[in-house]
Amino acid sequence: MVANRNAHRRCHHPWRWIGDTERETGESETVKRIFTNGFTRWAIAAALGLLVGSVVSSHAAEPDNGGLDIVRVRPNFYMIAGAGGNIGVQIGSDGVVLVDAGTDAASGQVVAAIRKLTELPIRYVINTGADADHVGGNAKLAQAGQTIFINLVGNVDMAKAMTNGGAASILAHDSVLRRMSAPTGKASAYPVDAWPTEAFFQNRKYLRMNHEGIEVLYQPAAHSGSDSFVFFRKSDVVAAGDVLDMTRFPVIDIANGGSIQGEIDALNRLIALAIPSAPFIYQEDATYVIPGHGRLCEQQDVVDYRDMVVIVRDVVADMIKQGMTLDQIKAASPAKPYETQYGARTGPWTTNAFVEAVYQSLIAKK
After folding, report:
1. C-alpha angle with apex 155: 152 to 156, nearest 5 degrees?
2. Residue 271 pLDDT exceeds 90
3. Cβ atoms within 10 A of the Cβ of 339, count?
């Protein structure tokens, strides 16, 4: 197991420094350098393919969890996969802090899985976005927990009224609350108990739980208009939500405020937050990044994903300059080099849907 883990880290560790010149600039020279280095990186990855395992494979998964995978990221930090979007679980003396809640249908399994890890109450559910596979379980997970707020004067009814019936707090950016609620006279897609009980307006919200600083960092106009990263500073873990999706091309939800440039900006911010295990590349000391879907990541995985998005964006932008229509661009398959890894011909988010979102986002800037 140790040999396999070290082999994995050699493959996933950055072999080049990620400095200012390596960050996305939108210039063609950056794209040329990425294409040139890409063939070498792909060749090395192919040669070492049998040795490469995901970060998930180097951490024990708990058996018999009703179809869920529980990955131990740190001694006090877990990732639950299989309940919709990935869920982060921080455990400490203050209780449990969750990042996202999965779907409503899987919430019972999630509660049961958490109970196998600890009997401590859930104190916070922090949302990275407003999509149903991340917030659908908000109400049930919060009701399974307990608020940290107490009523010093002993009025239990008042305390419950102020804290959603004494349940755990649901924390999110105000844009999530606006997406989940509804204008006057219209029905919301979510019950009131699932709405955030603590909404913030600023770009950075912080709190301290389990002797650890936690930052919730709003990322405007990325996957959508309501994305946030959740950075656990002592654990050195970042939950990225659907800004990073290792199972497909990023979903650019233009109808709900997403944009291709905002997505790239958010990925660059994520790269800046994450620190690799340099110079001691064989030590398991890197920042771990929990994506919205898929395997656990490190900084180089985010760099590769960002590079892919930049390349497709620049290729589509060049085709637009040539006067090509959307149908012509789709027929030219600008994302073809990455389709095997991230593409889909059918389903809710196809390769063509991604290309169209990039196109619509670029022409909207003009």
Report:
1. 105
2. yes
3. 14
Beta-sheet strand order (sheet of 288-293): 204-209, 212-219, 227-232, 237-245, 288-293
The structure's pTM equals: 0.81
In angstroms, the Cα distances linking 232 to 130, 205, 214 are 21, 12, 5
| Burial class of 88 by CB neighbour count within 10 A (0 to 12, 13 to 18, 19+) | buried
* Of 72, 30, 33, nearest in space to 55 by CA: 72
Could you report the per-residue pLDDT of 184-232, keeping only the tens digit for each?
778 888 999 999 999 999 999 999 999 999 999 999 999 999 999 999 9
Strand intervals (E) in the chain:
69-74, 77-81, 87-92, 95-99, 122-126, 169-173, 198-200, 204-209, 212-219, 227-232, 237-245, 288-293
Please give the C-alpha separations between residue 192 and each of 136, 217, 251, in angstroms, as whole numbers.
12, 24, 27
69: which DSSP letter?
A: E
Place of tokens 């844009």: 175
The whole-number pLDDT of residue 52 equals 37
Supply 100's token pair.
């996202």
What tokens does 276 get?
């690799």
pLDDT of 303 > 60? The answer is yes
Report CA 192 to chain centroid distance, whole Å. 24
Q: What are the b/e assignments for 201-239, b being 16+ CB within 10 Å?
A: eeeebebebbebebbbbbbbbbbbbbbbbbbbebbbbbb
CA 176 to CA 127: how far, in whole Å? 8
What lies within 8 Å, CB to CB, of 156 at 6+ separation is: none
Q: What angle do CA 250, 260, 218 make, to 5 degrees?
A: 80
Sign of CA dihedral 144, 176, 179, 294: negative
Q: Check: CB of residue 212 under 8 Å from CB of residue 233.
A: yes
